[in-house]
Amino acid sequence: MKTALITGTSKGIGLETALAFGRSGHKVFATMRNTSMAEDFKQRIAAESLDISISEMDVDSDASVKKCVETIISTHGNIDVLVNNAGIERHGSVEELQMEDFKSVMETNYFGVLRCIKSVLPSMRKSQEGCIINISSVSGHISSSPLGAYAASKFALEALSEALAGEVKPFNIRVAIVEPGIINTQMASGISIDKESLYPHSKRLAGLFSASLKTPTPSTLVADKILEVAESGTWKLRHPVGPDAEPFIQWRKSMNDEQWVDWSACSDDDWYESVEQNFGLNAR
What region holds the Ketoreductase domain (predicted)? Predict the structure, then answer.
């Protein structure tokens, strides 16, 4: 049995990951910014008699992260697995999205992960054992409008994870990046059309997500992959997950940068035709 700290567990991937770890016999500390959102989660824990404790932790706050991690370590001993899942999404063109939104996304998706990593690393390093799993996205490889702010945070997370992996491997600490494609979550269904935008990209992407979610990929698929990474002992760094994740990544790799820019800048008709031809999705 391992002790796992999982962030962002109020819903979606985080909640399902906490349940997956609990069902596999691990002791789980499920954290979230607002524990008042956890009533249904608590009922599921009780119904299955799972060893899951719900704790309040705001990854945007140095003090909150420090307090939560120190309490867990002092009370229960080392944290064996850290799953950095907490994340937010804001979409819009670079011109139109507010600076506050750019800052908020980076604060949670990048600095929030960094806070948690720095809090658990000393004990993991001392015990010469640990596993850190950072939940990135296909957007950690692909940047397109109107997800520029979100992709920037995930590109940063990928870079941080890659550097960290080389630093901590001598201490027997594994680092993994899990990269979901389009998953049936509240975040994915929230990709909407900005009718006031000067740019066509929000309409295009909303159509792409809507078309993909007609055959939804459940959060449990990502949760199972995270659990597999933690339990397998693998040193593999990147783990795309979902039926569209690897195809999206390879599609981007098939183009040079200029071709990618031209694709994003093409007419609506050419864009929709390309998506249908490459992925069989009618995003109109």
Answer: 2-186
